[in-house]
Structures are given as structure tokens and as C-alpha cells.
Amino acid sequence: MTNINNTVLYIGMTNNLIRRAFEHRNSLIEGFSSKYKCKKLVWFAQTNDVYEAIKMEKQIKKWRREYKNNLINQSNPEWRDLYEDLV
């Protein structure tokens, strides 16, 4: 998730992407994403293995911003909001 200017990134994992993205978009949960207005879904990965998801989240959180940007740019170079594609 990112903000309207693509200057802040929120990395997280969930078992229900549509619900969680909705919560972010509507600032329903207090915390980092609501504070920094991270409402735009620009990248996601899917897996059925919760341990793999946790491992991936922890790895990506440690990356430099440049690597995170490259990951997003590979599949979404315009940084468009992917939420609309999901619902």
C-alpha cells in the first residue's frame, strides 16, 4: 500500500486482501497506514502457505526503498491502484 504521492510504503500480510485493502482505503484501523494515508494497493503476492507469507513480509520490510520500488515497477510500472481490479 502507498499514499497518493507514492512516497510512503506499507508492507503487510493478510488472509483476505480485499477486506484488508478496504480497511486501509477507509482508515478503519489506526496505525501506520492510516497515519500516512496508505490507501492505494500497488503490489501484492499470493500464497497458500502462511509461513511463506510471513517470511516474505519480513524480508521485504528489510529491503531498501529502491528494491521495493523495483518490485512494484516490474508488475505495475504506473503504480495504479490494483484494488479496483480485485473488486
Q: Could you describe the 3D structure shown?
A:
By secondary structure, the protein is mainly α. Helix content is 47%, strand content 0%. The chain is built from 5 helices and no strands.
Features:
5 helices; globular; mainly alpha; 87 residues; single chain
Would you kindly provide a brief summary of this structure?
With 87 residues, the chain is mainly alpha-helical.
Topology:
Blueprint: H1 17-25, H2 32-35, H3 50-62, H4 65-75, H5 83-86
Q: In which range does the helix fraction lie?
A: 40-55%
Mean pLDDT: 96
Strand content: under 5%
- The unreliable regions are none
Strand tally, please?
0
The dominant shape is: globular
Structural class, please?
A: mainly alpha
Characterize the main sheet: none
Q: Please write the string of helix (H) and strand (E) elements.
A: HHHHH
Work out the helix count: 5
Output the radius of gyration: 12 Å
Q: Compute the separation of the termini in Å.
A: 16 Å
